[in-house]
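INFO  loader      accepted 1 record
INFO  loader      residues=252
INFO  predictor   begin
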Amino acid sequence: MRRPALLIGPELWPNGGATRRLGLVVLTVLSLLTALALLAHVGASRAAGDWASAVSREATALIRPRADESGATAAARAAEALAGVRGVQEAVALERAEAGVDGTVDDHSLWREDFTAAARGVRDLTLLAVLVAGLLTATAIVLSARQAVESRSGALQALRLAGADAPALTFLAQWHLGRDAALAGAVGAGLALLAGLGLALAPLTGTLGRVFPLILTDPVWLAPWPLVTAVVAVVAARVSIRLWLGRQRGGG
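INFO  predictor   done
INFO  writer      dumping tokens
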């Protein structure tokens, strides 16, 4: 018997009504959370790198003035001397309200390691958020695919009796479920894209602005997300159809 043509018509795949719409909303929200977490990770990674680089490049010198000079004069003299040291690009004398302190040099080594570890911790925490949100999204897609196939068992059985083979039924499920997942992923990523562009054009102030700095090119990281959700849905649809066909052949 000749294999029937691939099935993609909407009339062959019942709409699903409120259940389908609810599934789309859930996937959209999860996609939005995943995309926002990804942007936070990109910003936190940049901040961690900038902090570590800035701390490793700077040192603070506290100068003890001589009896015949003021604190400002001593600081200026020290800045001039330090500027000539190899590896020093710039030395700036800072104003002080009082003079008379002992001269010391702080290369930040006492707290550089802790500071760098804290920066890495923020970066790793946002990466964990991305992985958790992504896993939740994938789980929701798999469960949605299983439910979609089971809820359309009657329509699939009718197509099977009419001559549709396993590849045709599989393609039908993959087409519709992959399209829905891509749509939800695109909407979620699109909303996160708007948020990312807004933060890049009008950066946050205060601590949040320093921890999650974004630039205009960062939202590009969100571009593959609709494809990712579609691929997961296609795989989930394929597995779900195979499980359903296995039960049908076994008389379950």
